[in-house]
Amino acid sequence: MLLFKPSRSTLVSIKPPFRLVTRHFSSQNVAAAAQMPPRLVLKEEDIEEAFLKGSGPGGQKINKTASAVQLKHVPTGMTIKSQATRSRSQNRKIARRLLADKIEAAEKGPESRTALKANIKRKKKASARKKAKRKYKTSQEGREDEEEEVEDDSDEPVEEKVKEERV
């Protein structure tokens, strides 16, 4: 009996002896997710926040409302502007996350979350490329074997093959 499906990768069901069974169907590596360091937490007193009118596509409404958020981290002087959504609160969250990631990347360098994510993505891409090469190589080898068999059969007439087998 299926109860609910909380995400694409988890299936929760109740079996007849009335015990809860959870099965995870995910292609994501759990160990890789555990290696990520926690996000940098910014102090509110270190941030200057301003709400600006948006610009760009979105029609007249985006030009009239001050839903874009600009954050400045006072100790480092880094500035982030976010107008990803029409919601001011969502833009605030997005801007804070972007600012934290940018500061962490500047402080930690290759040990930052952003660098680790890029490294994981690079490794997955390289692995997929290697897998594709292997797959192509094995399919080519199979074709060459088939072609050799066909060539062997066509070179000698059937009568000569039979004579050789009898001798």
UniProtKB/TrEMBL annotation:
Q: Which family does it belong to?
A: Belongs to the prokaryotic/mitochondrial release factor family.
Residue ranges annotated as compositionally biased, kind Basic residues, are: 119-137
Q: Which residues form the Prokaryotic-type class I peptide chain release factors domain?
A: 41-143
Q: Which GO terms describe its molecular function?
A: translation release factor activity
Could you tell me which species this protein originates from? Letharia lupina
Residue stretches of biased makeup (Acidic residues) = 143-158
Report the GO terms under cellular component: mitochondrion
rRNA-binding found in the keyword field: no
Task: Tell me which UniProt keywords the record has, alphabetically.
Answer: Mitochondrion, Transit peptide
The cellular location(s) given in this protein's UniProt record come to:
Mitochondrion
Instruction: Report biased composition (Basic and acidic residues) as residue ranges.
Output: 101-111
Lineage top rank: taxon: Eukaryota
The record's Gene3D superfamilies line, in alphabetical order, gives: 3.30.160.20
Where is the major localization of this protein?
A: mitochondrion
Task: Report the protein name in the record.
Answer: Prokaryotic-type class I peptide chain release factors domain-containing protein
Q: Which GO terms describe its biological process?
A: mitochondrial translation
